[in-house]
Write a structure and sequence with these properties.
By secondary structure, the chain is of the alpha/beta class. The protein has helices spanning about 1-20, 30-40, 40-45, 110-130, 135-140, 165-170, 175-190, 220-235, 245-255, 260-265, 280-285, 290-305, 315, and strands at about 25-30, 60-65, 150, 155-160, 195-200, 240-245, 270, 275-280. It folds into two domains: about 1-85, no CATH class; about 110-315, Uracil-DNA Glycosylase, subunit E (3-Layer(aba) Sandwich). It contains 13 helices and eight strands. Strand 7 and strand 8 (about 275-280) form a beta hairpin. The protein is globular, with a radius of gyration of 27 Å. The N and C termini lie far apart (about 80 Å). Bound molecules: iron/sulfur cluster (SF4).
Length: about 325
Amino acid sequence: MNGTFDPLLDATIRHLETLRERGVGHVNVSAETLKALRLPASRVGGNLPPAKPEAAHPRITIRPEREPAPANQTASPTPTAPPARFQAAPAAVEKPANPITDIPDTQPMPSSKAQKTKAAAILALQQKALACTRCAHLAASRTQVVFGVGNPDARLMLVGEAPGADEDEQGEPFVGRAGQLLTKIIQATGLDRGDIYITNILKCRPDTPGQDSGNRKPRPEEMETCLPYLHSQIDIIKPGVLVALGTVAVEGLMGPGDVISNLRGKWLTYRGIPLMPTFHPAYLLRNQSLSIKRAVWEDFLQVMEKLEMPISKRQRQFFLNA
Ligand code: SF4
């Protein structure tokens, strides 16, 4: 059997590596197999050589199969230690529990699996929102629900107040002139719209009865009614930083308070996540002063620092010395 052990071991290692490439973080083996693996090699398959320490796979954990956990209870790790030569460090990314996407597993999910889970959860939430009629007057007047757009695994989430006429027509937040300016600000940080997530507190355009055009600010009770959708978006995406765009958005999240010119640039916390208030890009369109542009840019510099993004000397100088 000496001649067959090494090929078998090599084949096992190759199989584990293939699994790992497919995103598998662990494999289960029966208690009997584990017991056999711990026996001296000679008792498992005859005159086998001792296990080679170098046979350990660095990134895949082999663990004993466990009894199914009772309903609503996460299974605890088995007290039986796996063979030392197969033990490996846990995967690097530990995802916190999520009320929507939580999976009862003691092992961290590979990031690609976590990303797919987030994308599926966002999609399911979006389907729910698209059919929402909780605000009968807005459901009757809207062209479509403007749910949000971007990367479900984004580290940065921008939150505005409500869709306007352009957004209502196109079904995407921040697509009008203010949105185009916002896109330029995002690109100045080195990111694209697709890297981040953009949404509003209110998902339907505030109605303007008797008016053919124009927008109105959302009412506090309208934002309050729609806020659970934003909470779910935040809880699924779990961004590292939130940015609230404009006074109404800040008030919708934090309640009535100071004016945006006093709030901007100072970190707040919302649902445990750092929140940076800044001016709405529509305000920038109305006020073209360099000092206002620089103020917004300084807010985004703080966001970049919080996210540990690289910042060049040139980026630090934007809107200075002009
Ligand atoms: S604003 Fe929000 S809560 Fe109201 S109908 Fe639209 S999606 Fe539903």
